[in-house]
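Worked Example 4.2. Consider the chain below.
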Amino acid sequence: MTNTALTRRTLLPATLLSAAGRARGAGSATWRAGVAAVTITPRQSMWMAGFGARTKPSEGILHELQAKALALEDAASRRGVLVTADILGFPGTVAARIAKLVEKQYGLPRAALVLSATHTHGGPLVVSPRPGSSYWRLNDQQWRDAREYTRELEEEVVRVVGAALNDLRPARLGFGRTTAEFGVNRRKMTDKGVRSFVPNPEGPVDHDVAILRVESPAGVLQAVVFGYACHATALVADTYQFHGDYPGFAQQWLENRHPGARALFVQGCGGDITTHPRGTVELAQKYGDTLAGAVEDAIKRPMTAVHGPLRCAWNVFSVAFGSAPSRDELRDQLEHKDPLARAHARAMLAELDREGRFISQHPYPLQAWQFGDDLTFLAMAGEVVVDYALRLKRELGEDKLWVAAYSNDVFAYIPSLRVLREGGYEGGGSMRAYGLPAPFASDIEERIVGKAHALVRRVRGK
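Applying the procedure from the previous section yields the following structure tokens:
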């Protein structure tokens, strides 16, 4: 690749200039916080991630993509860093390399680093060991470009973490919630079974918007972290400009109104949630502005003070796949009318020839941060469907729980048992796009939820 310009971009720490976040009530600063951002938009045409229907590389820039880091340190000098990035997802191998360098350079343990993707489908391809059958159209040069971009992205994320840690200064934290109602379930049951990518106003959704406000002791806004559960696909496959979709517009909206502050978007359990209608820049901006406006109204109101200590926990466990197709079934699939199905069959047959078997499980990272007795932040891997957030908040206490997805490894859709049984794209069809051999085993939901309960009990000290 030539001149992606990532390693030559200036890291921009937040400066506390905006007075719009003035303090509501008394209180001392018990935290230190630092924020930094870096532009991660490629400076040349590249293949984009997210839509298998795309037939060519990118063509220009709608708006810049960014990676941002919020560093937090409690009164006992325990630190945590949240990174958000305008990409489809951090593959597990990429996240592991970043975390290893961060620990080596800054002494930050793995549990204290969250790598969260906005899941925009308007970013460049980030290479993973199983890049998925949807990228069969790439030529050798395009793969080389993607590998070079991935290497530079890793370097930039490590640098932005360091910049945020170097920016630490006294701060206060506040937590609150609001709602945004544009997310719609995209799975609809018919007499022929479930249909994916069809708006279903009666389906489950999570319209909750969780918000962490970070401000100086004088009440000046330093950063706002906000989360929502909805696919970043307001813009569709025929958009070939790099863009952050509605989360990008939302972050821009907030930062324009608070010069010097940073807005960080955390994607929720929106694996089966979409915007509707969709397909134009105007709609993407409308949804972004709607979300940002709800956040703006919330941070102007009193919020719950968030105290320390900060406790971080990390667990990796295996999730199993169900029965894989036979060699004969894959050979039959080579005649399928869908080019993605044919590409998947070729990839699986090559794996079978090379390894002699298919993978039977995948390591699943789960992460939790506890802020005193005030807030639990749970970061889940993969494209998690909304059932998980609704269940976990019901079982672990909605008022103090923030459930995020698309964190630390985006390697597959994570269906609930309901979605797995119903089938459709999120229930198993998407495994082709992710280059995986089979849908998950039927214990997927209970295994993840059980581990989540244990991890949350651990950080809560219960």
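The chain has two domains: 6-314+363-460, 326-358. Residues 1-5, 15-27 have pLDDT under 50 and may be disordered. Compare this with Example 4.1 before moving on.
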